[in-house]
Amino acid sequence: MTSPDTRRPTAPLSSALVTGPTPIVFAGCSLIAGAPECDCPARAPHLDDAAVEARARGMFVWQQKAPPAGRAAARRGIDGLLAHARGRGPSALVAELLRMSVLLRIMEEDTAHLVEIDALLRAYGELAEISGDVCWLAEVAVLRAHRAVIFDHGDAALPDTAAALAILADVADPGPGPDGLARTQRMSRTLNGLLLVLLKLGAHELADEVSQRALAVAESGSGPIDRLIHQLNRVRLQLSWALRLERGGREAAAATRFVAAAQIAHIAARLWTDARDRHLGGGLPPVEECIVVGTAYAMQHPGPQHLARLADLGRMAFLVDDRILLAIAAARCHMTAGRAHDAVRALEPLRAELSGRDGPEPLLALALHREFALVEGAARGGVPRSPGLEHYAAALEEELWALREARLLALRSHSEHHRLAREHGAVAAQALQDPLTGLPNRRALDMRLAEEVASPTSQPCAVALVDLDRFKDVNDARSHAAGDRVLRAVASCLRTALRAPDMVARYGGDEFVVVMPATALPVARAALVRAADAVAALPEDVAAGVTMSVGVVRAPLDVDPSAALAGADAAMYRAKHQGGNRVVIGTVPTGDIPAGPVERTGRLRRVMSQVHSGAPGHRTAGR
């Protein structure tokens, strides 16, 4: 078998990988066109988000079959696009580029990338937390599990894998419609990634459950390429499962899995042909250009008739798992023809390569070493091993089988624990959440403010009070239901536009409070101006033309939270009287502030008059 470039990716980590007919990638990138570096970051200021994402996807696809220098250049190009997108503020584009950047580094299996991987994963996880999208949170858990299974060891991946299983178990499959399509694609991608983690962990039974659900989701709303990818990964599952069963001495069960792999490969071949004809207008039969299809057929009925095809497939194999499957298939084809020495030569280069690697051995690598031991014995004339050695090998396999069963049990136990914890957390969260907007409520705000001003290790926080301009007109001219839709839209926009550590809470009516930890006033004002601009830019049919008046103060440590809110409220009044749609900096008042949550009556009004002597005694009509 031909050995491709070293440091190839070892596993398909995402449905975005080229596991189907190679599509026509975006041609506007200089790197894809043959240049040594990517010029997309320099062009990004002149591109909209869709064009930036298209270029990133093109590079992501292209780099999977590129040499190491090309993969490094693609990584730098996508990093440059990510830096540009972050300059525009939080967005779906930033999230997608973060995901690609994480995957690129995980695929390299280079520990030099670990610090960057962890930082990117934290940023991606923060965006998922802000969104509240449970499927997105599951995808973050899957990526963390990928990172653990590649760079640490299998057991380190169990908590995140179990978390993903628990989250996805509670997520209903997406429905029809535009939002449903986007959710279907994310769900399909997340399930696919989870399946591949479970394969790495040897949890084939759980992987089979996830695979069946992934295929059902893909059939309900994803495109043909997604369906093809899921079928190809089902072939991988059956082949890996069969090899593991063989190692455990379950030959009959293994034979059943090899048959299933070939049957699913036949389905995948039809999807491959349809996708290839649609995108490329024709090509070779799938068995000659799709590694897992060709391997599945050869594994079911090994014979010399497959050898030339397997050699051709080997020249295009870039995933280590694919190379292992091809090597084992080729060795078995040689053995059926009585060529044991050729079988050894089919396995030896890859066996030596994997033996020199640090870190945990993947399950397929164990299958490769077992295969080599069998064919090497045959090549030496079938000299039997000592009974003691045979017994030792069998005992080791039984121990590995028991460890795998224990890992499967641990996964199910961890998953149930996460499910119960999520149920408990959901009940607790309801008491701290505004039911209309999903934001933290007044009680949660009081708790957070008390923490921020009382912590001796923190820096002073900024506190802003946001009031919507002309919101009363929405309720009067349209309906309260329309007003509720506007409040939800503004809440979502605020949460997205502000920074991950900032807390946005609904204070009541059309008022929101923002708590910005350890933030100087100029920084806070700049962030709030961006948020106000984002709200003002919302379409008329979404936000009914409302804008924001914002007052912001910096709360000294040990200050009464009520005083900070009073100062922000007074500054917000000044923003109102200056025409609205603006941010005004205020100061925290001194004086006798009522303890506990701020109420805008009585004594607080008198304190506000100290700070803003010209303020009227009532709100403006637009308030």
From TrEMBL:
Alphabetized Gene3D superfamilies for the sequence: 3.30.70.270
A GO CC annotation given for this chain: plasma membrane
Molecular-function GO term, any one: diguanylate cyclase activity
SUPFAM superfamilies: Nucleotide cyclase (SSF55073)
Entries under InterPro entries matching the protein: Diguanylate_Cyclase (IPR050469), GGDEF_dom (IPR000160), Nucleotide_cyclase (IPR029787), Rev_trsase/Diguanyl_cyclase (IPR043128)
CDD domains: GGDEF
Span of domain GGDEF: 459-588
BP GO terms, sorted: cell adhesion involved in single-species biofilm formation; negative regulation of bacterial-type flagellum-dependent cell motility
Protein name: Diguanylate cyclase
Organism (species): Pseudonocardia hydrocarbonoxydans
